[in-house]
Amino acid sequence: MCGISGIYCFNNKAEKYTAELNSSVKALKLRGPDDNGIFIDGNIGLGHTRLAITDTSKAGKQPFSDNTGRYNIVFNGEIYNYKDYKNELAKDGIKFVSNSDTEVLLYLLIKYGDKALSKINGCFAFAFYDAKENTCLIARDTMGINPLHYYKDNEKIIFASELKGVLAWRIPKELDYTSLTTYFQLNYLPTEQSILKNVYKLTPGTYLIVSQLGIEQKTYYKIPLYDSKQTPPTYNDAKTKLYSLVDNAVKLRLTADAPLGCFLSGGIDSSVITAIAAQHTDKLNTFALGFTDNKYFDETNYAELVAKRYNTNHTVFKVSNDDLLQGLNSVLDYIDEPFADSSALAVNILCKLTQQKATVVLSGDGADELFSGYNKHRAHYNARYAGTKEKMLAAMNPVWKIMPKSRNSKQANLMRQFNKFATGFKFDAADRYLFWASIGSDNYTNSLLKNKIPEAGFEFLKQHILNPDIDYSEINNVLYADMHLVLQGDMLTKVDLMSMANSIEVRVPFLDYTVVDFVAGLPASYKITSTTTKKILKETFAQMLPSELINRPKHGFEVPLLDWLKKELWQMIDNDLLNSSFIIEQGIFEIETINILKKKLFSNNPEDTPAKIWALIVFQHWWKKYFSN
Questions:
Q1: Could you tell me how far CA 493 lies from the centroid of its own chain?
Q2: Catalytic residue among 2, 9, 136, 262
Q3: CB-based contact 271:545 (threshold 8 Å)
Q4: Which residue has the higher pLDDT, 398 or 222?
Q5: For labeling, which of 107, 294, 430, 559 is most exposed (least CB within 10 Å)?
Q6: What digits encode the pLDDT tens for the residues 368-416?
Q7: Structural domains present in the chain
């Protein structure tokens, strides 16, 4: 991965913004510590900061120009099938001056224009400039693995890999309260929303054509929606095809001119990727994170079973809660848009430690959303096919409401899950989906924020994320929604932020568009049943994995938020970020709701209060950084 930045002026010359372009590139330096450069010509200014992965020599330096100087590109990402097109382009007479995928992409765009987007397989965000036509094509990959933020007004469009790269242009900063409401419901922002007005995120699978006439947005890819009218392959044929597609996706992602390895958590997803990669690589490097203070979430023993089976060069990083806590400020400092998935703290330290040994890693991200791997997917299934047990569980909602609930112990977390299931059970399918995807409700955000936006919260998500013509009691439709909301807004954002904060590249084979297209077309019964989740994934690769991994409970990267907030972080909360005087002076939040949250934190029934307070901490730290002046 790398960082890109740029400006297109509709009327003025870009050279007047040279200082801002350099500042933007500098702001993105952790995305690419190996090199940087800028290009300015007429209306366009392009900037790049490089993490050298493919052709690490100076020949791969960007911005990259063709041999005539007419075409220029800045590119963040990897094109995994670039070698397939290099011979074709060579036959056209192209004399390559590097071994980089950037150069191949440049000439593909010269030859095919926007049609090249349907040919390339990769993760990317890039800007391609044609000096003769004075046009710029700005594109983002199919799944949204690589980010692209942009700001526009009547005079110009500014874009960058991260919001900090846009803010370096000293644009006007005004909070978008619709987005703020959504943030406090989800603890992150969907890929369609930005925390600032007039700042946008390019939708995955789309591109912009920018010229002096203005900006036109087009779509080249959409995640397919399951079509029940299509005849699916037989289950056994589907397993055979799935193996072939995932195997090819992994092989494509094993090419790098920098040290490479795999994250190996001990779960099914990363174990499948590792098992395949080990068959195509000699002495594969694998990396696992262990938690010395929380044995329940430590999966390193399962990871070691896989590492031993495939004789990988395995490294286990054992970290304590104090180690995670010490990384808190670096995470908060790097985040340039409020993002409150607290597992980012664990991902950050994993990336930081891995960077000492590898620059490129493969991960199992995306499998949960594709194959139905979350606990909430089982809840949706149980609500869809509710029997006596599920109906009784829902009927006991008054009991669950009074029981102590939190994520801090197995029993209290079970009560929290029962309460959430019982509450959501009575909603219609679309509202149930949004409720189970959320940390806070509309009632909560209305009580929290002084500026109340009628169309914010669930209403925004219904209009922009959910399709009113889709039945969300069907599991495949839930997965389709998760691919857009959870995967793009939360999971991929988290991995990009924390990997780039530590200058490493993470590749995600399960999100190869060929895998996504195929799995999206499979019946839900291939993915989830009353007894198992990720059915076809487990059964396709079962022979390659230790039996202990197949049906064990799913764990995630959890951090001890409740204990931290009540102890180590309480002074920061009470004396600074959520101090009553500061809250009143700031004028964004209702002080009564803040005080209720602080009090509930110390009760015997905190429920999701730690996650809500963490979202406030992240926002307040961000607001002080960008607005307190």
A1: 3
A2: 2
A3: yes
A4: 222
A5: 294
A6: 999 999 999 999 999 999 888 888 998 898 888 888 877 767 788 888 8
A7: 3-219 (3.60.20.10), 235-371+484-550 (3.40.50.620), 560-629 (no CATH)
